[in-house]
Amino acid sequence: MAESTIKLTIKFGGRSIPLSVSPDATIKDLKSLLQPITNVLPRGQKLIFKGKVLVETSTLKQSLVGDGAKIMLMASQGLHQGEGPVLKEASTRPISRTTVDQRKPGLVVDKNRSDRWKATGVIALAQANLKEIPEEVWDCGSAARVLDISENFIREVPARISSFVSIHKLFLQGNGLSDESIQWEGIASLKRLMLLSVSHNNLTVLPPEVGSLTSLRQLDVSNNKLTSLPNEIGLLTQLEIFKANNNRITTLPESIGDCSFLMEVDLSANMLSELPETVTKLSKLKTLELNNTGLTTLPSVLFKMCLQLSTLGLHNTEITVESLRQLEGWGEFDERRRIKHQKQIDFRVVGSGQFDEGADKSW
Hints:
By secondary structure, the protein is an alpha/beta fold. 16% of the residues lie in helices and 15% in strands. It has seven helices and 14 strands. It has helices spanning 27-38, 111-120, 135-138, 184-188, 302-305, 321-325, 330-346; strands at residues 6-12, 15-21, 45-49, 52-53, 70-75, 122-124, 146-148, 169-171, 195-197, 218-220, 241-243, 264-266, 287-289, 311-313. It has a nine-stranded parallel sheet with strand order 6-7-8-9-10-11-12-13-14. A five-stranded mixed sheet has the order 2-1-5-3-4, covered by helices on one side. The longest helix is centred in the last third of the chain and has 17 residues, at 330-346. The chain is globular, with a radius of gyration of 24 Å. The N and C termini lie far apart (48 Å). Mean pLDDT is 86; it is low at 82-94, 96-105, 349-353 and 358-363.
């Protein structure tokens, strides 16, 4: 009787990854199985067993890979998704520093600084070595228009942030914030908020409350550990710029098509394998970055419907130029792209005259 499964150990990045698979599975199947575990695209994986590179079309049985076998995985540079291998112990740290500078004294907020905050509405506390939001910040209340506490060591964004009823811009990036660190009900009440940045943190979930921020124009959730986006993202009908690159997002909600003002979207370095057809409803879309994803196709009417699209990033995907040329509206898109490129040349910006948005250069 044939074995139903065999146990393998994949050696990768100093780790040993245990797997149970069918001996009839192909090497290609094994690579697909390893993709979500390692964040390495299948075409970037080289599997080596007993000194030989395993061939994708062969089965494990045909490759003489049996129970208890150890296989080495080598990843091609540039074909990682997100931030590379998924490690349980991995943590996203503040962008420019890794430890609190003990020699630096705690922030002293004198009356002049506090009065200046209230007069200008701008509270700038980036890289201030903070572990918590100073009490003097809260005293600004409705006078606050901009709060920048990025690249600190803030442990909590409490619900009392709702007291900033007039705030337009909120910068929280690079604090190592976890899902439990942010009281989203407080942020959700900021009805005048136009820019929110929570990039470079440790977030695994973007909660439904984000849909309450209906004045939002820019949202940056890049460089986190998000695996999905809430359906409520579609309620952000004023959103113009959305950055969610370098996460672990596998699918996009259909509601993304309701963000009708979107002009720039960056979903690079995620684990996407397809885009919903509703993306084609984004009639104002000008820039779409999809580099380092698992995409093999685009919605067939993307070029036909997104008539302002002029920048399309497809580096390190399996989408070829030949397949793009078959899509309705390719000619018009390519013309827009060339016109934009020519404008860049006119302003002495170095670029390429050919289509080099990353589609496989096999033409």
